[in-house]
Design brief:
By secondary structure, this protein is an alpha+beta fold. The chain is built from 3 helices and 5 strands. A hairpin with a 5-residue loop joins β4 and β5 (123-130). It starts with a strand and ends in a 26-residue tail after the last strand.
């Protein structure tokens, strides 16, 4: 599934909601661990696209793909900002900071994540969430307590 959104907080919110709806269509209720994990990954990647990947006049694309054979849901968020690239590893967050935990959450919730250049311009940041999304270790104390609503889309 693919969709295009305005590069705004509202666009990110709509993307999360669409992702949760798609997960439900695939048989994963909104309160399930995997749906919540996908919602958080979508929320963080779309928030980063809005905050760091925004280019005037350009939105962001969201693609959500279920690979039941591999046991994964792949989340891809594409934006037009080619020069602003995510770090190779999530940055260490200051516990007192008001931001900077997004990629830490993605790193924790996704089996793998990364980014790739997008042709003709921009980049795609992606994360793969396991359908068995129960992590082996508890969330760090600096992480927000609950999942956000998610949204999904496939084309942009």
């Amino acid at each position: 599934m693919t969709a295009q959104f305005a590069a705004s907080p509202r666009g990110a919110r709509l993307a999360r909601r669409l992702a949760v709806r798609r997960m439900e269509e695939w048989g994963y209720p909104p309160a399930s661990d995997v749906s919540c994990a996908v919602a958080l990954v979508v929320g963080e990647l779309t928030a980063n696209a809005v905050r760091h990947g925004r280019v005037p006049g350009c939105g962001f694309g969201l693609r959500l793909a279920l690979d039941a054979a591999a046991g994964l849901v792949r989340v891809e968020v594409a934006d037009a900002a080619a020069r602003k690239r995510p770090p190779a590893a999530p940055p260490a967050a200051c516990p007192e900071g008001e931001s900077g935990r997004g990629l830490l959450l993605v790193d924790y919730l996704a089996a793998r994540w990364g980014w790739a250049p997008r042709r003709p311009v921009g980049k795609t940041v992606w994360g793969e969430v396991s359908l068995d999304s129960s992590p082996d270790v508890p969330l760090p104390p600096t992480a927000p307590p609950g999942p956000a609503a998610a949204a999904t889309s496939d084309t942009w």
